[in-house]
Write a structure and sequence with these properties.
Blueprint lengths: L1 H8 E3 L5 E3 L4 H5 L3 H46 L11 H29 L1 H7 L1 H12 L4 H29 L2 H28 L2 H19 L6 H6 L3 H12 L5 H14 L11 H19 L2 H6 L1 H7 L5 H26 L1 H28 L7 E4 L2 E4 L3 H20 L4 H9 L5 H21 L1 H31 L8 H10 L9
Antiparallel strand pairs: 1-2, 3-4
Helix pairs in contact: 3-4, 3-7, 3-8, 3-9, 4-5, 4-7, 4-20, 5-7, 6-7, 6-9, 7-8, 7-19, 7-20, 8-16, 13-19, 13-20, 13-21, 13-22, 15-16, 16-18, 17-18, 17-21
């Protein structure tokens, strides 16, 4: 008992220095039922602070999704615009849609430095500058150059959010909340896409862009009142600020000194990051996993469907393609809500494995659908030309296959490969390399998205439409093999335990503990 009591008063740092813990031993040794009840209540109250900060930051992800979805309702209007200086051809429209991912790549290039130097919260706030500038350029566009430049700037804002948000949420969350809160990014992105689709039904392309300009201002106003992450404070020798933040996030009943000590221990092991350390397995392995997961997230084919949703459904023979696009976005939204509830119960690895096979089956079904529609040209069918590709509208009796496969695909994607890679990326990178490694992985995602969006038309010409979907099916199957071989489960583990796992190259977390 004496040994336990003594351990409650002091904690030894890696250098041997003894530091007092905020709570006294009597608080741990003399606990009655009422105190336990009050402690649980206080913890729940302060978990609300973590959720609140995550939701405020998620407005940035909402901006992200709105940017991605904007091209789907806007392109039909832009390609029929009466002003010749603004009107886009179909190939120019494809370039316009893909520029957001090119801008995101640029945002990722310096996003890692900004996240580590200025902080996670500050980076989220700074992302509003290119967002706001980009949307205003589109709103007041007088020529194609302004459209392209505005789209590029909004992409830069998306890149900064893609780097900062997952790290921010991971570092303010406790291990049992991290998976659930990590899904908020994909949920908010889906809401943003849905919002752009809904606004597009009632408004033209300039007014849709005006709606996008409002959200960054809301993000700044909300984030002013939120906290920076304790890990960033400790990495910059601001211990008092870190303890104050942990007190707000965890509550007075939590052992915040213990958590602070664990973070400091990890920082002291590797205080600074050098280029040579990126050759060490402790960084190369999680970086390899993170980059591959983000690339597979894009090569599953979701980004191409999001950006070309209205045109794809029109090509498939649906008269009101915008309303069908909204139904797909609603399906994603519901699936993402479900993902919030199951992420920390089922586990990341299990979700990725099972849903990769489901997405693979959906792409195979879509390929079969377009193959049938190509072979069975009925006399009642007309021909639609889109992006230089002529395709016969499928007969009514096989059109159900397209919508069924797409809806199931988006359910499986939203439950797994939509949110999970972002969560894992924020968990597996060492603290000292989290900004740079996250920037590299996010840039890999946006690079893949840009290439897939830009090459979409050319892939249809080279592979035919069925071949494109079968290509994505093959990518989904490869992602299954990759996760099966390389990815460990991170559910319920602290960030420090995960870092030690890769540092020591253990086969299980139990070997660390």
């Amino acid at each position: 008992m004496a040994k336990l009591e003594q351990s409650c008063f002091v904690k030894c740092t890696p250098g041997g220095e003894k530091i007092p813990i905020l709570q006294s031993s009597s608080k741990f040794l003399n606990v009655n039922a009422e105190e336990v009840s009050n402690s649980s209540s206080n913890n729940n109250n302060h978990e609300f602070h973590v959720v609140l900060a995550s939701l405020c930051a998620a407005v940035g992800s909402l901006c992200f999704g709105y940017c991605l979805g904007y091209s789907s309702p806007a392109l039909p209007d832009l390609t029929t615009e009466s002003n010749d200086k603004v009107r886009l051809t179909e190939s120019q429209g494809s370039l316009f849609a893909s520029l957001v991912t090119l801008g995101a790549m640029l945002g990722c290039l310096f996003g890692g430095f900004v996240v580590d130097y200025f902080g996670r919260k500050t980076t989220i706030m700074l992302s509003t500058i290119p967002h706001e500038l980009g949307w205003l350029l589109i709103v007041y566009a007088k020529n194609q150059a302004m459209l392209y430049t505005g789209r590029l700037f909004t992409g830069v804002g998306c890149g900064l959010i893609g780097v900062a948000f997952p790290v921010y949420v991971a570092e303010i969350s406790s291990s049992h909340l991290r998976g659930t809160l990590g899904t908020i990014h994909q949920l908010a992105v889906t809401i943003g896409i849905l919002l752009s689709y809904v606004v597009g039904v009632f408004m033209g392309w300039r007014h849709i862009a005006l709606g996008g300009a409002i959200m960054p201002a809301i993000l700044v106003l909300l984030m002013i009142f939120m906290v920076e992450t304790p890990r960033w404070y400790l990495a910059h020798n601001k211990r008092a600020a870190a303890l104050k933040t942990l007190l707000w996030l965890r509550g007075p009943e939590a052992d915040i000194e213990e958590e602070c000590f664990e973070i400091e221990r990890t920082i002291d092991m590797h205080n600074e990051i050098s280029c040579s350390e990126f050759c060490r397995p402790s960084i190369t392995k999680p970086l390899f996993i993170g980059v591959c997961l983000m690339v597979f997230q894009q090569t599953c084919g979701a980004i191409v469907v999001v950006m070309n949703c209205a045109e794809i459904f029109a090509t498939a023979g649906f008269k009101d393609s915008k309303m069908v696009s909204i139904s797909v976005a609603v399906t994603q939204f519901v699936a993402n809500i479900v993902a919030c509830g199951i992420m920390d119960r089922i586990g990341r690895r299990t979700l990725l494995l099972s849903m990769a096979l489901g997405m693979c089956a959906c792409h195979i079904g879509l390929g079969i659908f377009f193959q049938i529609s190509t072979n069975e040209i009925l006399s009642t069918n007309s021909t639609i030309h889109y992006s230089g590709f002529s395709h016969s509208v499928p007969a009514h009796q096989v059109s159900w296959l397209a919508i069924t496969c797409l809806l199931i695909f988006y359910i499986t994607f939203s439950l797994s490969w939509g949110p999970v890679p972002w969560i894992i990326m924020s968990e597996i990178f060492p603290l000292r390399a989290r900004g740079i490694a996250g920037s590299i992985a996010t840039m890999a995602a946006f690079s893949s998205a840009f290439l897939l969006t830009w090459l979409f038309v050319h892939m249809k010409d080279a592979f035919t439409v069925p071949g494109v979907y079968w290509f994505y099916a093959g990518c989904c199957f490869l992602s299954f093999i990759f996760v099966l071989i390389f990815l460990p489960e991170t559910k319920g583990e602290s960030l420090e335990t995960i870092e030690t796992f890769f540092e020591n190259r253990k086969t299980t977390y139990d070997e660390i503990e």
